[in-house]
Amino acid sequence: MTFEVRPASVFEDVRALIGPKSPGANVCWCLSYRIPSKLNNELRGPARGEYVGELCRTEPPPGVLAYDGDEPVGWAAVAPRSDTSFARSRTVPHVDQLPVWSLWCIRVRPGHRKQGVSHALIAGAVEFARSHGAPVVEAYPLDSGDAQVDMTMAYAGIRKNFERAGFTYAADTTSVLAGHPRVLMRLDLR
C-alpha cells in the first residue's frame, strides 16, 4: 500500500489520531515530551486539545500524518530537539551540538497496523525535518529484540524499523519503556 504523508496542520485529523474519545479526558495528546513538565501537568481536559490546535496552526506544525486516501491513519511527532523535553533529558544523551530534530512518537490507527504505515511515517517525518533544515534526525526507540511490545507502549517505535529507514545506533540511554531499554538512533541528513 502507498500512504501519503503530509504536515500535521489539520487539527481534526490530528485529533482523530491522538485525541481522546471524550473531549474532557486527560490523555497525552503527544505533549509529554513536547512541553515542559509543569505546563504538561497544568493542561487538563479540553485545554490539552486547544494547545495542540494552536500547534497545528503554527509553522512548522507539530509533526506529520499518514493518509490512506482522505483518511488519516498515522501520526508521527517530530520537532527540533531544542523545542522538546529531550533537550533537558538526563536519560537521553546529547551526542554532539548539532541542532538535531527528534522523532519520538509514532501512532498507527487500529485497523491499519502491519500495512507499512509506520515505515511511511518515519520516512515522511525525516523528509519533513529535512525540508525545515534539520542536519540530523534522532529517534529513541525501544530495543526489544524479538520480544513482544505492548501496543500502548510501542509509540516510541522499534529499533529495527528505524534501522530499515537508514538510522544507525548512536548511543545507549538510561530510559526504559515497558521494560525495554531505549536507544538513541540517528540519521544524518547532511
From TrEMBL:
Coiled coil: none annotated. Transmembrane segments: none annotated. Residues 16-190 form the N-acetyltransferase domain. InterPro entries: Acyl_CoA_acyltransferase (IPR016181), GNAT_dom (IPR000182). It holds the Pfam family Acetyltransf_1. This is GNAT family N-acetyltransferase.
